[in-house]
Amino acid sequence: MRTAPTSYTRNGWFYRQIKRVGNVAIYEQRGAGLFEVVRIRIAPACTLKGIVYPVRESLPSDSLWGTYGWTCHTLERAEAKMATLLPTEQQNPDLAPPLHEGTASGTEAA
Fold it and tell me: What is the pTM of this model?
């Protein structure tokens, strides 16, 4: 299975994974001083527009922010958010909700 990236670029920002416990990770958004806490999900194999994708780990899309991803203004807040997610992760480590579920903003105050 392809695992979630330890670094990636999205919307012009560079992200680097700084901590991971099970399926919960913290990424640092370089240059912005922000941290993103994400619940990594297992995406099922599928075919989209003729391209076959195997079972893989998946980071939350923008539409899932607030449900599977949160932005924190300090590392301490990110670690606190991560701690709240770990009991759920330990109970359901392979939880893979549909990729099309959405929610509103997931930004926490500084």
Answer: 0.77
